[in-house]
Structure formats: structure tokens, C-alpha cells
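Encode chain A's predicted structure.
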Amino acid sequence: MTIRLRFTIAFAAGILATLLAAGVVVWWQMGQSLQASLDTALQTRSSGVLASLENNGQFGLQETNRSAPGVFAAIFSPSGQVLDASSDTPSGLRPTAGVQSVGGRQYLVRTDVAADGSIVVTGVDLQSVTDAQAALERALLGVGLVAGSIALVGSWFLGGRALQPLHRLSDEAAALDSADLARRLRMTGGHDEVWRLTATLNGMLDRIADSVERQRRFVAMASHELRTPLASLRAELDVVDGSDSLAEYREAVREAQGDIVRLTELTTSLLELASPGVDASSVARASVDLRQLVTGVVRSLQPLARERGVRVRIEAPAASVLVDRTRIEHGLNNLITNAIVHGGQGEVLVQCRIIEREAGRSLRAEVLDRGPGIGNNSAHELFQPFHRGSSVTEPGTGLGLAIVAGAAQAHGGTYGAASRDGGGAVFWFEIPDVGG
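Encoded structure for chain A:
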């Protein structure tokens, strides 16, 4: 069932229900009004008869029968015998107040006791009330049918007009193509619900286009990064194939091994960056000794530090933290490697500490160097895949800091970078809810 049909049915049903309730009230009030009018006529007729009895000591029914047209009167003895009655009094009437059925007709009857104990009975035929209510019922039914028909047609028309912008929006959305990611849905004039829906959908299209564009750049840059070591490896194998020198053969094999190592590292980094569904609930947290973790990462990088003439110093407490050890080791490894390679000669300080806040504990890891700093680069740009700082001269893929960002985000944490006073840079990440 379409929204338009549901709207039409609901609107028409509401109109009919309102008319029915109003009709019942009008019908009831009309009956009450007519009956009150009859009660007044009965009281007037009865008062006339009682006054005639008191003044003349006679019944005098003929003298008062015009004071309340249509109302009959009768006088009964205390024992219930008919003493006198107007000519229009129905036969079989009883001196009992209320609605009586006599001869197949309904009468409204009133009783009053005279001073001598006789019972004055006045009454009126209710057929006029019944006829009036029946006429009202027919009129209300006709009005209800006409109003219901108008409500059905009107609500169908209004529903179509109200849903027309949604049909247009649906048609435009169906016409969108993946090849035209810059196209957006046309905004309506007023700031109504359709305008808000269109704005929301356009925002979603912006995010999709941005995601697709980032994926395209990722694939393009990954292909470019992979092409260089592969071309180098092919050239080295061509040298081996065309050479009879054992020394050239060994040198080519050593260079090929280096290219294979770089290809392996690059492929691992690309796979980690491309892994879907990585968030704070999917990491494998375990209790880890913080000082032991940092010491192990620094120890593995000592050969590179000696080669670059860099001394790495550690400041880390002996505390247990709940982290995904593999991801944190990989993130710290990339931060320290970045500082050793691009931070110039001198000292690199690896500083880790536990921060207590009202929201809970968190682990903050900082790597500080005395290199050229981050210059005009923003921290957001530095942590993007394949982005390299403007002052970087060393070769690399531009994936190390992106992996650091992924590790921090996977733990529900944050990351950043800034230049240090006196020269150098500090790169950091912070992970909440470490516990331990």
C-alpha cells in the first residue's frame, strides 16, 4: 500500500469519524431539546387543569386544551378510575409518569396530584420527535456521504501534491550514475522536510564521492609505489640473465633481496591500511607491560639508529595497559622510524605515560626529535596515506604515519603532530580506556 493511499484512507477516516461524532451529538441534543420542549408543554397543560380545578371545583378540561396544542389531558381518581379526559386522550392510558406504549405508539406522560387527591395526567405523542430525529438522521447521512466523498478526493489530490517532490527526488536519485560522482540532487525552495531530506542525501553523496575518490587515489598511489621496486627487481634480474660474472650475479641478488624486503613491507602496510571494519570493538586487547613493549620496539630499531647516528632514549613506566599489542608495536615502530630517518642526528626521545582523567585512564605515546619540525604541513595531512612532508628528502612510501593513525583510531584514540620549541617535532597518539 502506497503512502498516498494510506494518507487518503487515514484522512478520509478521520473526517468521517469527526462527522459521525458530531452527528451523534447533534442528534442527541436535538432529541433532548424536543423532549424538554414537550415537558414544558405538559407542565403548562397540567398547570391549567390544576388551576381550573382549584378555582371552579370542576374539571374544565375543555377550557385549557388550547394552552398546549397537541397535549391531551385526563383526570383519574386516586384509585385509578378515569373521571374525565380530553377527546384526544388515547384509550388505555395509565396514570403513570414516563414513556408509555399505548396502541402501538409512544407517549410522554406527566402526572400531578390535585388538592382533592385526584390525579391529573397530561401527555403527548412522541411520533413528532421520532420523525424529526429520523429526518435529521437522513440529513446527516447525506452530509456524511458528500463530505466523505469530498474528503477522499481532496486527500488523494493533496497526498499527490505533497508527495510529488519525493517522486521527483526518487527519479533524480535513480538517475545518478557512479561515473558522475559530482552530480547532486536539486534542492527545493523552502526549508521543509523535503529540503532536509535532499540536504541529507546530498551530504551522503558527498561522503560517498570522497570515499570513492580516496579509494581511487589509494589504488593509483599504491600502483605507483609498487611499480618502482618491481621495475628495479626486473632490471636486476635482466642483469643476472645477461651476465656471466659471479660478482655481478651476487650483487644483483643482494639488490633483489632488498627490493623484495621493501615490497613485502609495502604490501603489508597497504593491506593494513585497506583492512575494512577496524574499530575500537574489533581490536584484540590484552594486558601488556608498557615498558617491555616500548623497549622491544626500540631494540629492533637500534641497527637503523646506529647507522643514522641517532641515540634513542626511553621514558616509560612499568605499568600494564590493555592494547592490541601488534597494532601498538607497529604504530610505535613507524613513529620512531620516522623520527630516526627524518629527525636528523641527535637524540630521539620516546616518552610514554599514563594519564588519569575523570573519563578514565589513557595511554599517551610521544616521539620527540630535533629535526626540521613539521614546517607548513598540517598534522591532518601528515597522517594521510602517501603524503610526505615538504621538508622530507629521504625515500619512502608515505604510509608510516597513516598506519599510526589507523592504530590509534582502531583503539578509539587520537593522534597528532607539532613542531617543538627550539627545533624538532613531536608526533603522538593517545588511546583511552587502557586500564590494567
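The longest helix spans residues 3-56.
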